[in-house]
Amino acid sequence: MKCGTNVFAPFGFMKDGKIQGIEVELMYEVARRLGIDISINIYKWATLLESMRFGTLDCMFAAFQTKDRLEFMHYTNVPVHISSLVFYVHEDKPMPFKGKISDLQGNRIGIVQGFKNPYDFEKGERRQMYQVFRLRDLEINFKILQKHCIDAVLVNRHVGEYTLGQLKMDGVYPLSVPLTATPAYITFSKFLETKEKELVKDLSYLVPQFDAVLFEIFTDGTYQKIFNKYMNQ
Questions:
Q1: Contact, 157 vs 86, CB < 8 A?
Q2: What residues contact residue 201 under an 8 Å CB cut-off, 6+ apart?
Q3: Superfamily of domain 2-81+181-231
Q4: Which sign does the torsion angle of CA 168, 154, 231, 17 carry?
Q5: pLDDT, tens digit, for every residue of 148-199?
């Protein structure tokens, strides 16, 4: 089974020419327990979705559920993580955010270029409630935050925590209230189901199998061990 993911450390990334990450190891463990042979490669996000839409990949991880994506992908019912989108700020300049877009009024916020933001956040930007700076990568965002050139960085909580650990940067911390918290899932392509009957390859049967094994992995301590391996580096 051909699977794909994107660069989203600590969940998936390349290091020393090898694909690593929390969810990469999780997928291999699921496959091992189910007796399925899988290959995993890293793609750009747009390529991942296109490959799932046209069936050149069998599965991908991890994706939010949207109406459009449901047309060409099956989703597991058990998420592989809850993506909490939070603001990281510098301890010298706390930002009073209580969950409302209006709390961001007048601030300068950094994000990673190409990252799709929640609708309400983009709406606030269009109304010029705050400034949004789209920077090449997360490391640059945090370094500029440390220099007080921006007031906050918006990113997945665990991605931010991992990156700060790699940078060994002090004085930057996440706000406790997330902007959004969205489950992300393993998905399977529906593409081949739309072909002539003799070419049908229905992968929906994998959903309950993956659900059962994911539940085991989350409850028997395996996931926590994998998670700690990367987050404690």
A1: yes
A2: 192, 193
A3: Periplasmic binding protein-like II (3.40.190.10)
A4: negative
A5: 999 999 999 999 999 999 999 999 999 999 999 999 999 999 986 555 555 5
